[in-house]
Amino acid sequence: MKYKISLLVSLFIGINCASAQNTVKMSAVKGNDYGVAYSLPKTSLIVTVEYTKKTRKAGEFFQYAERYLSISNPITENTTTYTVDKIDATTKGIVDKDKSYLVEFRSNTTAPFVTLTKDGLICAINDDYTFTKEEVPLGAKEAKVELLNPRNFLSEEILRAGSTAKQAELIAKQIYRLRESRNNILTGEADNMPPDGNAYKLVMQQLDDQEKALTAMFTGTESVETDSREFTIIPDEKDINNKIIFRFSSKLGIVDAGDLSGAPVTLTLKNKDPREALILTPKEEKEMEKKFSAGIIYNIPNKASLQISYNGQNYVQKECDIVQYGVQDVLVPKMFDNNKQPIKVIFYPDMGAIKQIIQ
Q1: What 3-state class would DSSP assign to 11?
Q2: Which residues contact 174 (CB under 8 A, 6 or more apart)?
Q3: Which band of pLDDT confidence, cut at 50, 70 and 90, is reported for residue 107?
Q4: If 170 and its partner were Cys, which of 107, 151, 158, 228 is the partner (CB 3.0–4.6 Å)?
Q5: 268-321: pLDDT as tens digits
Q6: Distances (CA, A) of 87 to 39, 90, 158, 254
Q7: Per-domain residue ranges for the chain?
Q8: What pTM was estimated for this model as a whole?
Q9: Can you tell me the distance from the alpha carbon of 93 to that of 121, in angstroms, rounded to the nearest whole number?
Q10: In this structure, is the dihedral angle defined by the CA atoms of residues 359, 115, 298 and 272, taken in order, positive or negative?
Q11: Cβ contacts of 252 within 8 Å, gap of 6 or more
């Protein structure tokens, strides 16, 4: 069986500490009875979904687009659609509040110390620890580019026109005049040419903006936004089979797992090397308890296969380390009794597993 014994109520309570960039160094000295408290992590899964929202709006005069502007495919109805761009998953260590311990060194050991994350996860013994630099995530969702309000450019004649068809005809004529003005400036035939380069750029930009805004009254508009969202799953010791993380709707985007308006995004996590529970005699249990009460406890994670699917497609299919699927073991205290060459132990803080032992 998996054997563990909590030796100390957690002195470091926190979450999401595997990515912490700050560490603290705790020395084992007489003042704390040559003991340092530390915690071990458990594995959480961070599922990230990136998606696109496309909004299409029909123009006020879409039915006249072909007649006056020879545009054959204007947007004729308002629609909003969502599509999944990417789904990914990463593992992250979080403090396991049930696994906090006290590492005790002998009083004759040369100034031993333990490096911890700011939340108490063990990083190293008798050595410093430096986290690799994390990439800073890009900003929030992509900003929409808003068109100018076309009604700001409508003349009194257009606004007073007696019918929708007449308004559409007059607006189309205004669009053609804007194009003619731009062409005259480009060819140098305009009566009032911009006096310098900056004025030229400004005038041309204004003409373009006005034409786009007025043309959109016929063609309609389309805007595209990208966004992302994260979901956290904390496995226990059992496999996960087709767990619905959330649902995704082409009309509503991300919806709750219980909302049947969307198709399910499912997660399956399976231990690749499940171990049978050990049956120990009372004597063996006592020996195991003695072993774990005196040493430095660390995790040995197990490999797991991770799959995340949506609409019949596997967006994630990979192997990962899961602490909850593994076991624990102990470093015996006498390893650290050598005053001439103190042993250094480097851990993976997000797993509580040994990375390297240096003598």
Answers
A1: coil
A2: 153, 154, 155, 158, 214
A3: low
A4: 158
A5: 999 998 887 777 788 877 877 878 777 789 999 999 999 999 999 999 999 999
A6: 31, 11, 50, 12
A7: 59-81+144-222
A8: 0.78
A9: 9
A10: negative
A11: 82, 261, 262
Question: Which amino acid type is present at position 261?
Answer: S
Please report, as a single letter, which amino acid is at residue 266. T
Phi, psi of 156, rounded to the nearest 5 degrees: -65, -35
Residue with tokens 């609409």: 311
CB-based contacts of 137, cutoff 8 Å, min separation 6:
none
Helices 164-187 and 197-219: angle between axes, nearest 10 degrees: 150
For residue 253, the cross-strand partners are 249
Task: Return the structure tokens found at 223.
Answer: 């805007």
Measured CA to CA, the distance from residue 351 to residue 348 in angstroms comes to: 5
Give 118's strand partners.
Answer: none
What's the one-letter identity of residue 140? A
Give helix then strand counts, H and E, for the chain: 5, 13
220: region left, alpha or beta (phi > 0 left; psi from -120 to 50 alpha): left
Reference 321, options 277, 354, 348, 351; nearest CA is 351
Residue 185: both structure tokens together: 């400036």
Amino acid, res. 174: Q
Of 8, 200, 17, 32, residue with least CA distance to 102: 8
DSSP state of 121: B
Select from 238, 280, 285, 245 the least CA-distant residue to 262.
245
CA distances from 146 to 221, 281, 345 (A): 10, 73, 57
**Which residue stretches of 220-303 are H helix?**
282-294
Distance CA 354, CA 348 (A): 6
- Name the residue with tokens 């400004």: 202
Report how far residue 166's alpha carbon sits from residue 64's, in angstroms, rounded to the nearest whole number.
Answer: 10
The residue written with tokens 């797991």 in the block is 304
Residues 256-270 pLDDT 10s: 999 999 999 999 999
3-state secondary structure (DSSP) of residue 216: helix
Q: What mean pLDDT comes out for the span 47-56?
A: 97
